[in-house]
Design brief:
Blueprint: H1 9-22, H2 26-52, H3 67-78, H4 80-91, H5 101-123, H6 129-135, H7 141-161, H8 164-175, H9 181-190, H10 198-231, H11 243-269, H12 278-309, H13 312-323, H14 327-346, H15 352-380, H16 395-415, H17 424-431
Helix pairs in contact: 2-16, 3-5, 3-11, 3-15, 4-5, 4-10, 4-11, 5-7, 5-16, 7-10, 8-9, 10-11, 11-12, 11-15, 12-14, 12-15, 13-14, 14-15
């Protein structure tokens, strides 16, 4: 009688992670169709905007920025999770990071792609995009921003792709003559002839290390330049010297929250409980709490200096944000991003995962509202003693915003059918083929 084969840790990892790539549930197709429908509606809304101009939006001569620029700052910000969290943990050789780096790097690419198209939508006339390259002035932060985003996007794609090479090679070998011809060609092409040789591994690890070092200053530069677009403008609230670090910390804060939500979803849907454990949520929860306190400090500093000086324009802005028509959004941001998440994380010892994920959802909502508070109220303050500006988003802006979010989720959904959600070779190398001590197999 043949002895029953006992599945090893690495075999189990391979089976669980590769399962979604070769087996598709019916619900997956329905979800993709739903997302495509939302994106298609967004294209219809954008068609109306191109046809009739920006008059179909709530923006005007006074408040010339709205949802599009808010979404631009927000999505560029959440891309930081992929760059900084993944790169810093890799450079510090934090072993627990390996199951979450792939998801973090996907967030970087998805957030950057979604964020980069928002200024094009905001232009109203997409045919004018080439003017920036043809007639752009190097003195303008707008040109710096485009250069930084393009460079960061290229770097993020490279940083995502390099650790994929061994996993693509593994899938190529497992497919053999099975699977579609498209999949065989796809994985063979992008595996780049990987044979897991010693020299190949050394070169790959060196390349990943170099990209991890390069991606950190690239990430910091992008959101710093985004901050310069506002802070180099003589408008109340924007004319600030702390906007660079303020935007960077805010980006890492919201990006870490999105990362926590993403790993919770992947963990649940693809049964990754053995690999993405409570330890990951606990450690990222502590990081989220540190970033929360840092962001609170910067927010307190920002409004304290405005309130202490009470310069004419700044006074109007402070009243508008804290007590006026934008006050509900400001206090909702403060409660949902600062107060409640801090309480949830501090008392999350017994129910770490649900409480930390709930805190992350609140942070994401609140930080989107904070971007709205940064962008819109400043433009509502009159430069001349006339009536305050008004802004109410129309169905076109809301539809395009919903399509942007659906597109972000769609990128993840489609990527899950071609890209392993966990870097298998890194997890196996880190664990030595055995479950990490104290974590074992999920029950």
């Amino acid at each position: 009688m043949r002895a029953k084969h006992v599945e090893s840790y690495s075999e189990r990892l391979e089976r669980v992670v590769l399962h979604p790539l070769f087996h598709t549930r019916r619900g997956y197709y329905f979800f993709v169709l739903f997302l495509l429908a939302v994106v298609a509606w967004g294209f219809y809304a954008y068609y109306n905007q191109v046809r009739y101009g920006l008059t179909v939006t709530g923006m005007g001569d006074v408040v010339m920025y709205g949802f599009y620029i808010v979404n631009f700052v927000f999505f560029i910000g959440i891309s930081y999770a992929g760059a900084l969290v993944s790169a810093i943990l890799r450079l510090t050789k934090a072993g627990w990071r390996t199951p979450i780096t792939r998801i973090a790097e996907l967030i970087a690419v998805g957030g950057l792609t979604d964020g980069a198209i928002q200024p094009i939508i905001d232009l109203g006339r997409p045919d004018r995009v080439w003017h920036i390259f043809a007639y752009g002035r190097f003195q303008s932060p707008l040109l710096w921003d485009i250069i930084a985003i393009i460079t960061y996007l290229v770097g993020s794609f490279i940083y995502l792709y390099l650790p994929l090479i061994p996993d693509f090679a593994l899938i190529r070998d497992r497919l053999g003559q099975g699977g579609s011809s498209f999949k065989r060609r796809f994985y063979t092409l992008f595996a780049l002839g990987w044979r897991n040789g010693v020299e190949q591994r050394q070169r790959l690890e060196k390349a990943i290390g170099i990209m991890a070092i390069l991606i950190i200053p690239l990430a910091v530069s992008v959101h710093t330049v985004v901050a310069f677009i506002f802070s180099t403008t003589l408008r109340p609230g924007w004319n600030s010297t702390i906007y660079g670090i303020y935007f960077v910390i805010g980006a890492v804060f919201s990006g870490t929250a999105v990362l926590l939500i993403a790993i919770a979803i992947f963990r649940k849907i693809y049964h990754l409980e053995e690999y993405i454990t409570e330890k990951h949520f606990r450690n990222l929860g502590y990081l989220l709490l540190v970033l929360l306190l840092t962001y609170f400090y910067l927010t307190f500093t920002e409004y304290l200096t405005i309130g202490y000086k009470l310069e004419a324009g700044e006074k109007e802005l402070l009243q508008l944000v804290v007590l006026g028509k934008n006050a509900p959004w400001f206090w909702l941001f403060f409660i949902s991003s600062i107060v409640v998440p801090a309480v949830l994380i501090i008392f999350s010892r017994r129910k770490t995962i649900p409480l930390v994920v709930t805190a992350s959802v609140l942070v994401v909502i609140g930080m989107w509202l904070k971007r709205f508070i940064i962008v819109v109220p400043t433009l509502q303050v009159p430069l001349m003693p006339f009536e305050f500006g008004t802004y109410t988003p129309t169905w076109v802006e809301i539809s395009i915003g919903a399509a942007t979010l659906a597109g972000f989720v769609l990128m993840f959904t489609l990527a899950a059918k071609f890209i392993p959600s966990i870097s298998m070779w890194e997890v196996t190398s880190e664990s030595g083929g055995e479950p990490p001590a104290g974590e074992g197999r999920a029950k």
